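Record type: monomer structure entry
Structure origin: computed from sequence
Chain ID: A
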Amino acid sequence: MSVMVEDNPARNRFEILVDGGLAGFAAYRQRPGVVIFTHTEVDSAYEGKGVGSALARSALDQVRTRGDRVVARCPFIAGYVERHPEYRDLLVEPE
């Protein structure tokens, strides 16, 4: 299974592609220096296969690389950060 996560700023979301097909996304709003994650969806065909976790991990890694911070309004992203404390330093309080 080939997995790739890419930012699609035109659609305000990180998309995960599995074997070249869209398998899910993490929607966001962008503010200067902050990415506000609002909603995550994974196609039901990929549930339980680690696709959502791969999406969250890669999206958060890309945000870190850009030097941005995160507001996790999306319950999936918030839960992922809670389970993976190495990402907690990215969190900021919403304005």
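Annotation 1: The chain has a mean pLDDT of 96.
Annotation 2: The first helix runs from residue 51 to 66.
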